[in-house]
Design goal:
It is a single chain. The chain is an all-alpha fold and 204 residues long. Helix content is 68%, strand content 0%. Helix 5 packs parallel to helix 8 and helix 8 packs across helix 9. The chain is globular.
Length: 204
């Protein structure tokens, strides 16, 4: 079986030491604002003030609030990618494709529950940015690969988009506000993965 190379979040050319320090200061300042005041408090001016640098430096480094907030999520995203690309079962390659897909979507649901507030502000600041982000491209490529292995008859790229479509912060915020528990969401994922399969057949 040929190996599919996945785009990995956070892969970038090496930075100069001063540029890396500035990036870290900006991200640390943004993280403090999120922790103390919530993601809505993150503006380029507020981050620049908290980091003790000019707002122009923040804009040159990140461009806009959406890019800055997505960068805040990068560390966790890289750990998630390492887990599903090369980690142990059930996320990693030692497990069967259907098992990996179920574990991937369950873990994705857990991450949305934890990070939905930051993700919501990041996506609202730049509508449509989600689908061009390295994180989404990596997830879509991964799910497409698993679907091709588990369901060779399916239109895997389209089905991958449809499976990922519910994993948006606005929906998870709506569910959490109505006291829907993570276990219920995972049960719903399992029902979606099993839809259309023959009784006694494997999922997805």
């Amino acid at each position: 079986m040929s190996r599919i190379e996945l785009p990995v979040t956070g892969q970038a050319p090496p930075e100069r030491a001063d540029a890396a320090r500035n990036r870290r200061k900006i991200l640390d300042a943004a993280a403090r604002l999120v922790a103390e005041q919530g993601p809505d408090a993150v503006t380029m001016n507020a981050v620049a003030h908290a980091a003790g640098m000019g707002v122009g430096t923040v804009y040159r480094r990140f461009g806009d609030v959406s890019s800055l907030l997505f960068a805040l999520l990068d560390d966790d995203e890289r750990r998630f990618q390492e887990a599903f690309m090369s980690g142990p079962a059930p996320l990693g390659p030692e497990a069967a494709p259907a098992v990996r897909l179920r574990a991937f979507l369950h873990t994705l649901a857990e991450r949305l529950v934890e990070q939905r507030a930051v993700m919501a502000v990041a996506e609202a600041a730049s509508p449509g940015a989600r689908y061009a982000s390295g994180a989404y491209l990596t997830m879509h490529t991964h799910v497409t690969m698993l679907l091709r292995q588990a369901r060779p008859e399916a239109d895997a790229p389209v089905l991958a988009h449809l499976l990922l479509a519910p994993f948006v912060p606005s929906l998870f915020e709506h569910l959490m506000a109505r006291d829907v528990q993570v276990g219920q969401i995972k049960a719903g994922i399992d029902a979606l993965l099993g839809a259309g399969r023959e009784p006694g057949g494997s999922s997805p």
